[in-house]
């Protein structure tokens, strides 16, 4: 592949791996970048230039899901005890990095999934906004005090994290939607396993890189690449995952709810309307 490809329809140069020249990408599990045990991979290609390989990603499976959930479960024991304002400071730093790299990220997004550049910039701006908003929530993690109906009793509530959450995201907003799921979960003290869409793995990779650079502890966020059958389904069924957040089709959303129902696993699902 040429070092630089020009597409006159896009009106800017398409540069492979704008950040580092990287073309081979790995899962992020327990703070380490690791391949799939099977050695299998899949390609992400530029839809406007199919000969342009954006990157090669691991085609993972249940082994990687199990390792990612175990890493998230281990990290949860310390992450949940981080003061919420301190968690917010990490997210705020990530937001600052996102601001600095907005244009690079937008151009990589256009290259990977075909969104026009103006829309790609808007997608990245949503990530920036969500990250700063969640960072501020670190100082607004309020509970409640309420009048008790019993004498000499004090009634109050506090917010506590759930645990390990599984996040399954679609291709059409490849950074915004992962951020809508990741940032609120993180600021509340949860740890995460993210399965991005196989059509747009690069932008989730970039988001995780930025969180790592901002100082997020190892294991708090993990990303596993692969198909819905090989990665999504084991993630939904895993006994140590307490919540699944899914965005996608109604048919798959129904399957998510069915998979989680036997163990009363919490589900947050945004699906396409039924017609």
Please give a structural write-up.
This protein has 275 residues and is of the alpha/beta class. It has a single domain (18-271), classed as Aldehyde Dehydrogenase, Chain A, domain 1. The chain contains 8 helices and 13 strands. The strands form 5 sheets. It has a 5-stranded parallel beta sheet with strand order 11-10-9-12-13, with helices on both faces. A two-stranded antiparallel sheet has the order 1-2. A hairpin with an 8-residue loop joins strand 7 and strand 8 (155-157). 41% of the residues are buried.
Outline of the structure:
With 275 residues, the protein is an alpha/beta fold. It has helices spanning 62-79, 84-100, 102-113, 117-137, 176-187, 201-213, 228-237, 250-260, and strands spanning 5-7, 12-14, 27-29, 32-34, 41-46, 49-58, 144-146, 155-157, 164-168, 191-195, 221-223, 241-248, 266-271. The chain has a single domain (18-271), classed as 3-Layer(aba) Sandwich (Aldehyde Dehydrogenase, Chain A, domain 1).
The ordered H/E elements are EEEEEEHHHHEEEHEHEHEHE
> Termini, distance in Å?
43 Å
Largest sheet: 5 strands, parallel
What sort of overall outline do the alpha carbons produce when their principal axes are compared?
A: globular
Instruction: Give the helix proportion (percent range).
Output: 40-55%
- Residue ranges: pLDDT <50 for 5 or more in a row? 1-20
Structural class: alpha/beta
How many discrete domains? 1
Number of strands: 13
Compute the CA-based radius of gyration: 19 Å
β content, as a range?
15-25%
Query: Overall mean pLDDT score?
Result: 91
Q: Please state the second-level CATH architecture.
A: 3-Layer(aba) Sandwich
Q: Widest sheet: strand order?
A: 11-10-9-12-13
CATH topology: Aldehyde Dehydrogenase, Chain A, domain 1
The tally of helices reads 8
CATH superfamily: Aldehyde Dehydrogenase, Chain A, domain 1
Oligomerization state of this entry? single chain
Q: Which CATH class applies here? A: Alpha Beta
